[in-house]
Amino acid sequence: xxxxxxxxxxxxAVATLPVDPALAALTGEYTIDPAHSSIGFTVRxxxxxxxxxxxxxxxxxxxxxGSNPGASAASIDIRIASVDTGIGxxxxxxxxxxxxxxxxxxxxxxxxxxxxxxxxxxxxxxxDLTIKDVTRPLSLDLEFNGTATDPYGNxxxxxxxxxxILRSDxxxxxxxxxxxxxxxxxxxxxxNFDISAIKNAA
Length: 202
What we know:
Low-confidence stretches: 6-17
Helix content: under 10%
């Protein structure tokens, strides 16, 4: 079952594609549940190990269109001050002007511009990622984990996914050299998303 269909090469094909009833039933507006979602990152430290962190304060919406899956969309706002790597001093450094400059730029945002089906439950959502005052395109590879009704009667959908970026592309360039060669913080950062979203009441 697909959430986002790949765009067809011809209008005739689009007109004759059958609509999956189960897919169409998912059509609607959804609100991301931050209590059951996580947005995190992994970055190489001192060339030898990985440091993981997350942003605990985020909100967002999804629009799923089962009849026209290419019209599906996502919008996510992440509060930079909520960054958490488990080390207070390191978190304070990340919030400082050396990195995110959270006082001047309190939000990281993602606004989707395109979605496509890659086959099976795999999808790709492309959009604009803004960090500080820089906006650049980002493609997220996603897996649809399914849908369920929770004990409170909420209809949920779930996705997980990831993307790799170069932080320098968004102006995050602070670093320090190691005596043995290399640098303290890698330029490449892996972003990780685990999303649970609740369908809004009609």
